[in-house]
Amino acid sequence: MRTVYGPVPSWRLGRSLGVDPICQNACSFDCIYCQIGPTIKKTYKRDVFVDTKRIKRDLKEIMPIDADIVTFSSCGEPTLAKNLDEILEVVRDIVDLPVAILTNSSTLPISKVRRILRNFDKVIAKVDAPNDKIFNEINRPIKGIHLGNIISGIKKFRKIYDGELEIQTMFVEKNKQYSKELAELIKSLDPDLVYINTPLRPSLVEPLSEKEIKRITKDFEDLKFRSVYEYRYRGDVSPLDKEALRRRPAQ
Ligand code: SF4
């Protein structure tokens, strides 16, 4: 499995060069809508999944690249990589682009992770539920992970972070009636931007309709937001990009 892929077109990030520090389906969640399918390795243990030298080699091989941003993303949870800080250093040395990371937010309660994420230009953190009941039903986290801890981790992070903190929230049947509560909760995190999403990529869960998402966006009017139906990428996608898109998680 390649550690570097794309650039792929992203409705959130433009042309994004992906860096995968996990390269396996290892995640602390098992989201019902995950486009990878059920989580194979459910773990909350931070570990070295991919050697930093391998990422350095893969990155050097594809240079130069025409992209807008480098995005740490994975078919698992990228912040579980214990060598995340080392990998970020390698990327900074080789590529002169802003660097973002997509996270499911589960490791934000860990101070060391917050310190590492501070060094990214953009952190896109997932919040799909306003309470533990819905959190357990949608994100199906590993035992011991609670929404309250994640929310306080994100709030602590916001205080120390000068970059762009963006929240992505995935709406499906199970949480659509909680959009008001979710909007209030997300507002308390003081994000720079909110992505309102629904699984338009292949998923075991049906996406909400454009009309339903439009109704939901009304609850987010106090916040700066982008909705997937309005901003999804409509340009041409090359076969290489299609392959890369297939590998990308629905984070
Ligand atoms: S959607 Fe993301 S956070 Fe959820 S199970 Fe898949 S990889 Fe993990």
From TrEMBL:
InterPro entries: Aldolase_TIM, GTPase_Obg, rSAM, rSAM_sf. Keywords: 4Fe-4S, Iron, Iron-sulfur, Metal-binding, S-adenosyl-L-methionine. Residues 12-234 form the Radical SAM core domain. GO terms for molecular function: 4 iron, 4 sulfur cluster binding; catalytic activity; metal ion binding. It comes from the Archaea. The keyword Signal does not apply. Pfam families: Radical_SAM (PF04055). Its cofactor is [4Fe-4S] cluster. This is Radical SAM domain protein.
